[in-house]
Amino acid sequence: MSLSPAPACIELTHGSGGRVTAELITNVFHRHFDNAWLRQGNDYAIFTPPPGRLVISTDAHVITPLWFPGGDIGCLAVNGTINDVAMAGAQPLYLSAAFILEEGFLLTDLERIVISMAAAARAAGVPIVTGDTKVVERGHGDGCFITTTGIGVVPKGINISGDRAALGDAILINGSMGDHGVAVLAAREQLHFITPPQSDSAALHSLVAAMITAVPELHCLRDPTRGGLATTLNELAHQSGVGMQLTEAAIPIHAAVRGACELLGFDPLYLANEGKLVAICPAAAAETLLATMRAHSLGREAAIIGTVTGDAQHLVQMKTVFGGSRLVAWLTGDQLPRIC
Amino acid sequence: MSLSPAPACIELTHGSGGRVTAELITNVFHRHFDNAWLRQGNDYAIFTPPPGRLVISTDAHVITPLWFPGGDIGCLAVNGTINDVAMAGAQPLYLSAAFILEEGFLLTDLERIVISMAAAARAAGVPIVTGDTKVVERGHGDGCFITTTGIGVVPKGINISGDRAALGDAILINGSMGDHGVAVLAAREQLHFITPPQSDSAALHSLVAAMITAVPELHCLRDPTRGGLATTLNELAHQSGVGMQLTEAAIPIHAAVRGACELLGFDPLYLANEGKLVAICPAAAAETLLATMRAHSLGREAAIIGTVTGDAQHLVQMKTVFGGSRLVAWLTGDQLPRIC
């Protein structure tokens, strides 16, 4: 007679807080995220931060499908929150991760996700130091949701905020727009491409560190995720009380993304990105910033895409490739739900 | 012709990251959580912590029903994470909140929850400084899930951890066991009581502050939430490599909880609590700690319930009210799923 095999699926008892929860934490989360904080076995992590201002940011991740070309919900949850922290100009220090799992979710799938998170955290040098696991009944969740929260420290003298864009500032991005959105769309709709688009999911904190070293007077940073570049620029224009003038021809968009958008009626400026940032800096520093970004592996296709203007209505305008002018409005409706 | 009325339900577009998301954030979250960090409009909050060691803790909340006697998911999400931070002996400073909403969830219900969170945060003096909102399709979530993360600072000289219980230490609790579990059970199963049990949901940080001032040599603190007192004591015994000897008669349990448990076959030692803590301290300090706890409004029914022993198997034993001895094992299975 042999013992019954371990359950291959998440069951409600994995969320009970009892012995089965403890085993899941030890065998899956602690095993892969392994670090001194988790080994302590407390419901919290204690750390001594470097002196200075700290940043906290949080993101829930509900992307579907859980795996897509170029990434998965795990690396996305790590990189996405690292990026939110980095957009304050901060060096990310620690992450927490809270899982909401659906009864019936395969344990092997959970482990794949956790391994991906662990690899992303290790690559970024930002450990996952505390967490939580809840389980909901079948049909009351959707496989796996992950909420990550990040803590970082802002270097002295750095003052980056969405309300600091000023008249005449240059607007830069670190590369092509829409890759994540189209990659997820392709995975979801099982579209076939000759060169399949890949998500750009990446942790941007080392790029940001290089940028603030080269141009400490950087005014704004923001990652154009949900809502895409268009929405991010409108947010920044609104927050800073300025307008913006873009040059469409300067915005890099990969051929596969452009093709998919034309075919399916999407606008790449509204598609989500997961390894991209918008930077706004004084015009005089723009070429230095551009060169710094291009010298970094995550900024090779960086470009100056526009200028901050004095529009009282805080509109984002774009000179089109055909020489006309187009209003780049906020996203209304939802092009692609559950993109991150 | 009039404009169409604002949607009364959460729609997918509330999670798009576009204009409708921005309106939800402004009109609901910022309006009620209102503070200087949120008003900045960034995806993060910046703060300068007091010097010293910091604590981070996170919890996902998936409780059903969302409203129950004595509380709701909103105050629970605030108090629960404040308590996790406080269990390090820390003073909680800031919270983040990430919402996963199901398409079709009533906006009025969301606002009720947000108002409850805001009230709990204000009462505790711990602002919600950053957040996130995602929306999933109808049938892929369950109304409202909330993940909160807390940051706190540990006072100098305090060294509380689950691995510090030592031979001869006293084990205390701050009041009756099982109230939250039975209150949620009653709401879920629509049970009727003459005196309906109320959840004990409460923020324990001011009680903890009084306790560490009176007894700075406190060894362990933990909140017996999921899995109840039994599981929490087993965790601590395991983590510290000790055994425990409890006295059943010393453990306060309200009559309604005892009655419901007898009727329904539950064991109150395994029911979740949301305003309770276990404290372990040197025996010599136990009476001082007890008096301090009893002098606080959240510790009036505090009791010394047992002693740390030298059991090599790390078992938790209990002298029953009938004079016998009973093993208090880890929770196996799940008495009540989605209790927090």
UniProtKB/TrEMBL annotation, chains A, B:
Protein name: Hydrogenase expression/formation protein HypE
Transmembrane segments: none
The organism's place on the tree of life at top rank: Bacteria
GO BP terms, alphabetized: protein maturation
SUPFAM superfamilies: PurM C-terminal domain-like, PurM N-terminal domain-like
InterPro entries assigned to the protein according to its UniProt record, in alphabetical order: HypE, PurM-like_C_dom, PurM-like_C_sf, PurM-like_N, PurM-like_N_sf
Listed CDD domains: HypE (cd02197)
Gene3D superfamilies tied to this protein: PurM-like C-terminal domain (3.90.650.10), PurM-like, N-terminal domain (3.30.1330.10)
All copies of domain PurM-like C-terminal, residue ranges: 168-313
PurM-like N-terminal domain span: 42-154
Family statement drawn from the similarity comment of this UniProt entry: Belongs to the HypE family.
